[in-house]
Amino acid sequence: MERNYKRTAFWAIVIVLLYLSYERLSDVIFRAFNYIDVKYSVVPEALLPSINAFVDTFISVILIVIYLILAVFIVKKHEPGVKLGYVKGFIFCLVMGFAFYGIAGLWFELVDRFLVAIPFIAKNAEYFSGVYDDLESGAYIWSLLSISIIGPVVEEILFRLLIFNSLERISKSPWFAIIVSGVLFGIWHMIFVQSVYTAVMGCIMGLIYYKTRNIFYTILIHIINNTIGNLPPALNTDAINTVISNVTYLMVIPGIILLILLCKEKPANRELAAEDYGL
Fold first, then answer.
1. How far is CA 184 from CA 20, 152, 274, in A?
2. What is the pTM of this model?
3. C-alpha span between 136 and 138 (Å, rounded)
4. Which of 4, 63, 74, 251 is the one with CA 20 to 30 A from 27?
5. How far is CA 243 from the centre of its chain?
6. Are the beta carbons of 101 and 204 closer than 8 angstroms?
7. Which of 4, 1, 13 is nearest to 171 (CA)?
8. Three-state DSSP state, 251
């Protein structure tokens, strides 16, 4: 019994450290990068308009390397997950990516129509509307990398791979890891109006990862979701955004249906392989 308490305490500490690691490590990497740039002027002038997104991308790449190294020690072997295949898997991720954006859109419709009357939420929503302005300034390629590609990769590795697997060391119930990792993902965003839908998204992502044991599915869903909200300037028009918003709303129901079908799907019995680590 005492051993179980020690084991639980150990993994609880690991989870806390992982949760706090993003901000702490990012700060260390940023300070090191800034010191090198001030001393040796490594950043060319052409990158200055996109410096925030460039630095964010650089930090995220370093974090991905660190987190993947940690994954070797934290991620354990699991029973085989559901295999969707390339085509079926891509369609699943595409629908879920659009569905997630639709869920976020419905939540903000609720905020704008009703909850904005609450001063705290009104102020929170106003702040959120400009939170990514710095990352979206400058060349689009760096915004694409920071918000749509590299950002989702590091977040999925941290929450769905490291924190999720650490939570599984504490409780055998899959719902414990699914819900706690999802709620932590929401809180981690630190802006209430964003935290609500990202918590829902985090729980569903946790369920998808649990069923498939494949981090690439959740990464692709996350990338699609973020890319929809970060279109290139040529496509970022009112007409296109209206069409995309309507499509995302329509994808919510198919997304729910696909999620239910995934939950009913049973993995094929086979011996554990390297891919079952979720890497």
1. 11, 16, 28
2. 0.93
3. 7
4. 74
5. 25
6. no
7. 4
8. coil
